[in-house]
Write a structure and sequence with these properties.
- The chain has 11 helices and 8 strands.
- By secondary structure, the chain is α/β, with parallel strands linked by helices.
- The protein has an 8-stranded parallel β-barrel with strand order 1-2-3-4-5-6-7-8, surrounded by 7 helices.
- The protein is globular and about 80 Å long.
- Bound molecules: SN-glycerol-3-phosphate.
- SN-glycerol-3-phosphate (G3P) binds next to helix 7.
Length: 218
């Protein structure tokens, strides 16, 4: 499974890339606001230079024509740029137009199997179902991933499934078990993946025994 980093924090991306855990990056307007950089085009270009893999930048226009114009502009920034388009009626039109021009699109804010079917038919390179936000409203986010993976396999769609709105390590475990192509993971969750109390406890015991050996007479 590929790991994308769900962040616009260039330092965190750099750090995680150096560990070999960053196959791509996804951003959105909220993550851009969190990063606090108004020069978003320059930031996306910096992220592309670090990642050397797919980097999603989201359009902010709400009409199809505006999304297409913004998508073309974003795609021209860097060959790694993937245009993120919200899954609305206007979004579907934009996905079809941009995909027809061989611009890779990541269809975002997906919450149902029908939306996933539509964006695959429109030619999206990626679909981003938001599992955490479905869990938040009492629905089963990972069940949607399971359904999309099954249906895409049934009909041999090329669209890759990006598990998005990942909140905790079990979302990553379940994504891998279900055969999702990609999980896009916030840096703080990446850090949690490596942590285990028995690792810490075992290491502390090894260090204590080592100190005892150093202090012993023989
Ligand atoms: O990948 C989508 C993500 O950025 C949304 O996450 O935690 O705001 O639902 P969240």
């Amino acid at each position: 499974m590929k790991f994308f980093i769900d962040s616009a924090d260039i330092e965190a991306i750099r750090e995680i890339k150096a560990m070999g855990m960053c196959d791509g990056v996804t951003t959105n307007p909220s993550l851009m606001a969190k990063a606090g950089r108004k020069d978003t085009d320059a930031l996306l270009k910096e992220i592309c230079a670090v990642v050397q893999g797919p980097v999603s930048g989201e359009v902010t226009a709400l009409d199809a024509e505006g999304m297409v114009a913004e998508g073309r502009r974003l795609a021209a920034l860097d060959p790694h740029l993937v245009v993120k388009i919200p899954t609305t009626y206007a979004g579907l039109q934009a996905i079809a137009t941009l995909s027809g021009e061989n611009i890779r699109v990541n269809a975002t804010l997906v919450f149902s199997l029908n939306q996933a079917l539509l964006v695959a038919k429109a030619g999206a390179a990626y679909v981003s179902p938001f599992v955490g936000r479905l869990d938040d409203v009492g629905e089963d986010g990972m069940q949607l991933i399971s359904d999309i993976v099954e249906v895409y396999e049934n009909y041999e769609y090329d669209t890759e499934v990006i598990v998005a709105s990942v909140r905790h390590p079990m979302h990553v475990v379940d994504s891998a078990l279900l055969g999702a192509h990609i999980a896009t993971i916030p840096p703080e969750v990446i850090r949690k993946l490596v942590a285990h109390p028995l690792t810490d406890k075992g290491l502390a015991a090894f260090m204590a025994d080592w100190e005892t050996l150093q202090g012993s007479g023989s």
